[in-house]
UniProtKB/TrEMBL annotation:
Domain Thioesterase: 196-243
Signal peptide location: none
Record-linked InterPro entries: AB_hydrolase_fold, Thioesterase
Classification lineage: Bacteria, Bacillati, Actinomycetota, Actinomycetes, Kitasatosporales
Name recorded for this polypeptide: Thioesterase domain-containing protein
Listed transmembrane segments: none
Superkingdom of origin: Bacteria
Length: 318
């Protein structure tokens, strides 16, 4: 049988599945792969309607409408990190209303024991977001961190990064605590159905790496190459919530994990120390110059990501 690739998309709403699959194909292979690729499309479990065709994906660092998501008044102070963390936790739980954001200590006091580790990840992402937002633009040559893709004032950069943090955390929270996990895993399991026999590649992004990983752990099916990009699987607070202890899924021959050092969702960039056997894993650092350094097209177009996939397909997929 010819090789196949199954994609598992990440956090946030997406365009319709056929278009999303074609976009991933084009970024990874340079052209649409037709029946050789499948998209495990779980977005409808969380979002009632797909994004407009070719509309910007806010989880790639682009605002949902024009510049609305980063339209911060000049000189405006960003929301204090602890307030942002508390509000995001409340929204993830479905706690809405006009009440003012509670003091962070009070929110922490209400955390269930199994929530507190994930809340630590949210806090760390938020503080790193603000640190990155402090980095300079070309008008600020003394900046310690280069952010060529974010030619925005600091308030705008803060908004871009916090948009990623907020959406990423809410969907991960829904996966682990909101009852969405089993249905998300079922979507991936269905996408894998009927692919036994030929070489198989599984590619996951962001939350999609967690979903794909847990399905492969459960099934033990043969996978020639697992590719994870922008993955939080190396984050200890995420590992605490996995159904099984961290390990390379039994059927996975090779695992390529790629991340950008500025990607807030990845946060920790090396899987090898925690996922045995280590010799099956290759951790690579790449440059993702999407606005928040988490965009999927920028990850899939990197040579370190494309080459091992294309070797399995031969000549870039034919």
């Amino acid at each position: 049988m010819p090789p196949s690739v199954v994609y598992v998309h990440g956090n946030g709403n997406k365009v319709r599945p056929e278009l999303l699959k074609s976009q991933w194909d084009t970024a990874l292979f340079g052209h649409d792969m037709g029946a050789a690729s499948r998209m495990a499309y779980w977005a409808p479990l969380r979002y009632p309607e797909p994004l407009p065709d070719f509309g910007p994906d806010p989880l790639d660092g682009a605002p949902e409408r024009d510049e609305e998501a980063v339209d911060v008044p000049a000189g405006a102070a960003p929301e204090p990190p602890e307030d942002f963390v508390a509000r995001t936790l409340q929204e993830a739980r479905g706690e809405t209303g006009a009440a003012a954001v509670e003091e962070s200590a009070a929110v922490a006091g209400r955390l269930r024991p199994d929530e507190s580790a994930l809340a630590d990840w949210l806090r760390d992402m938020t503080y790193l977001a603000d640190t990155l937002a402090e980095a300079g633009t070309p008008e600020e040559p003394s900046a310690a961190l280069p952010l060529e893709a974010l030619w925005l004032p600091r308030s705008g950069r803060t908004a871009v990064f916090r948009l990623l943090v907020q959406h990423a955390f809410k969907d991960v929270y829904a996966y682990f605590f909101g009852g969405a996990g089993p249905a998300m895993r079922e979507v991936v399991a269905r996408a894998l159905d009927g692919l036994d026999g030929g070489p198989l590649v599984v590619v996951g992004h962001s939350l999609g790496t967690i979903i794909a990983y847990e399905v492969l752990q459960e099934q033990g099916r043969a996978v020639d190459l697992l590719v994870t990009v922008g993955s939080p699987l190396a984050v200890s607070e995420v590992q605490d919530h996995l159904a099984r202890p961290p390990a390379v899924p039994a059927g996975v021959t090779a695992w390529r994990n790629a991340s950008d050092l500025r990607d807030l969702v990845a946060l920790d960039h090396t899987l090898r120390p925690e996922y045995a056997p280590q010799e099956r894993i290759t951790d690579v650092l790449v440059t993702n110059d999407s606005r928040n350094h988490h965009g999927i097209a920028e990850y899939l177009s990197q040579r370190e990501v494309r080459e091992p996939v294309q070797r399995i397909f031969g000549d870039g997929g034919g």
